[in-house]
């Protein structure tokens, strides 16, 4: 085990960095902490996914923050800002350029947007049956970071992290033997059985099993009626595009981490992640979409809009990709969201710096092809990552245009609360660096039920049958993988 200190210009005391053997699969290390308080994994999907570079693992936060009842979004973001400031500055010494040196890791649920916009109802009309907080962040004074470009795995400790905690963390991550697997007995009835507590003294890796297949909350006829209503709003000039989604649910028992491992193997993506919510509750995200990145005051967003399923043969697959790239409808959808993001980001960008360096690029994943664009800018002086979030959340690619009216229509027509779906999984470190996903292709495991959502952008040219099928295409690999366990 090698210990070293790395240098980077900046304020604060230097971080301590401990080198561990490199592993491309984050499960090698995360399995040792996945059941601990505040366990979180930001997963780049390597070695299969192409875009991601870093994995970030942590647990045992110094502090955990959730919005209070009735607290505004601005107030909560202010508390987050003060928590990062209280942890204190830190710097790196040496050659490595790590993305995180201590700070916040957590999520904003889609419905956190209601706390930022008082023209929306305080809660979704359908309510949130999951009971999940609108946001949850830990303040972390350490992180294990794997760099898949340099093939390094380093444990970084913020200067405020106590020496006793450092030794315990390194010893925990260095455990060579994986935890034993305790299998569950066969399912004997279709109802969820609640939590199955881990054995003392340490949580063991356990099997995951659905107690019922996934089923949609919305009948096809209701879906068709909702799309017709969106078309009416577009014809009336209320909006140009609405992202409409439906939810699927199943019962489960066992360990969501085992489910995540299976999902990651079936559908690796560059902005994936796992967030333990305690017990057998967790967020499992297999997102391909970056929301916002802030690095040295440079902003980047990478909206996805436009989808086709992968083909069963090479020829069919190439045909689907070509059809997507040539689709006037999909390109128009993508351009609407690019314009929306230019507007959102422009509210906090230095004047004249907003750019669109990439438009209608093709990205392919195990289940679908996507059209992806990028929007970049420089953050205005005096502003920070929290200001950027306040100006831009939730992401335009999962609301529609114009954003506020689209969100109001979503409230009216969707039969369920979105909860964490279409929210954001993110970190903000003490230097002000941020990266974030949009939590599409994401599942929430809570209280013996696992929830999964699929949706897409509805425009005037949309046909309800193809949109319904697209909502299935996006998530069927996730549902089928869990149903096969």
UniProtKB/TrEMBL annotation:
Keyword DNA repair attached: no
Pfam families tied to this protein: Anth_synt_I_N (PF04715), Chorismate_bind (PF00425)
InterPro entries: ADC_synth_comp_1, ADC_synthase, Anth_synth_I-like, Anth_synth_I_N, Chorismate_C
Occurrences of domain Anthranilate synthase component I N-terminal (ranges): 25-153
Keywords: Aminotransferase, Transferase
Cleavable signal peptide: none
Ranges of residues in domain Chorismate-utilising enzyme C-terminal: 221-474
PANTHER family reported in the protein's UniProt record: AMINOBENZOATE/ANTHRANILATE SYNTHASE, AMINODEOXYCHORISMATE SYNTHASE COMPONENT 1
Matches recorded under NCBIfam families: pabB
Protein name: aminodeoxychorismate synthase
Gene: pabB
């Amino acid at each position: 085990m090698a210990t070293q200190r790395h240098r980077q210009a900046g304020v604060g005391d230097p971080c301590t960095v401990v080198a561990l053997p490199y592993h491309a699969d984050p499960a090698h290390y995360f399995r040792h902490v996945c059941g601990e308080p505040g366990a979180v994994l930001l997963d780049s999907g390597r070695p299969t996914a192409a875009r991601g570079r870093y994995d970030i693992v942590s647990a045992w936060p110094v502090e955990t923050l959730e919005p209070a009842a009735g607290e505004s979004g601005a107030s909560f973001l202010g508390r987050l800002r003060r928590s990062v400031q209280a942890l204190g500055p830190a710097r790196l010494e040496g050659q490595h350029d790590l993305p995180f040196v201590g700070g916040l890791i957590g999520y904003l649920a889609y419905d956190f947007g209601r706390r930022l916009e008082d023209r929306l109802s305080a809660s979704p009309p359908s309510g949130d049956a999951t009971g999940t907080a609108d946001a949850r962040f830990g303040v972390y004074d350490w992180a294990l970071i794997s760099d898949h470009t340099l093939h390094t795995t380093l444990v970084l400790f913020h200067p405020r992290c106590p020496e006793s905690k450092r030794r315990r963390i390194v010893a925990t991550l260095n455990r060579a033997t994986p935890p034993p697997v305790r299998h569950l007995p066969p399912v004997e009835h279709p109802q969820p059985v609640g939590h199955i507590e881990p054995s003392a003294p340490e949580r063991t890796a356990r099997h995951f099993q659905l107690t019922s297949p996934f089923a949609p909350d919305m009948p096809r006829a209701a879906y068709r009626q909702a799309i017709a209503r969106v078309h009416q709003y577009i014809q009336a000039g209320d909006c140009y595009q609405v992202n409409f989604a439906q939810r699927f649910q199943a019962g489960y028992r066992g360990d969501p981490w085992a489910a995540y491992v299976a999902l990651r193997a079936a559908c690796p993506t560059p902005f994936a992640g796992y967030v333990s919510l305690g017990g057998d509750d967790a967020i499992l995200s297999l997102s391909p979409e970056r929301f916002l990145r802030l690095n040295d005051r440079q902003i980047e967003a990478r909206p996805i809009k436009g989808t086709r399923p992968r083909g069963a043969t090479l020829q069919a697959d190439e045909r689907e990709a070509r059809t997507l790239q040539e689709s006037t409808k999909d390109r128009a959808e993508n351009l609407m969201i690019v314009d929306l993001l230019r507007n959102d980001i422009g509210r906090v960008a230095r004047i004249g710096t907003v750019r669109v360096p990439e438009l209608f690029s093709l990205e392919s994943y195990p289940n679908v092809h996507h059209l992806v664009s990028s929007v970049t800018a420089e953050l205005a002086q005096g502003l920070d990552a929290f200001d950027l979030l306040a100006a831009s959340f939730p992401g335009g690619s999962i609301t529609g245009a114009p954003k506020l009216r689209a969100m109001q229509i979503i409230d009216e027509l969707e039969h369920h609360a979105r909860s964490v779906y279409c929210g954001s999984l993110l970190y903000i470190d003490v230097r002000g660096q941020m990266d974030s996903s949009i939590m599409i292709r994401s599942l929430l495991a809570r209280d013996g039920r696992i929830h999964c959502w699929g949706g897409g952008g509805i425009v005037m040219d949309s046909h309800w049958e193809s949109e319904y099928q697209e909502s299935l295409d996006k998530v069927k690999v996730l549902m089928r993988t869990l149903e096969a366990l």
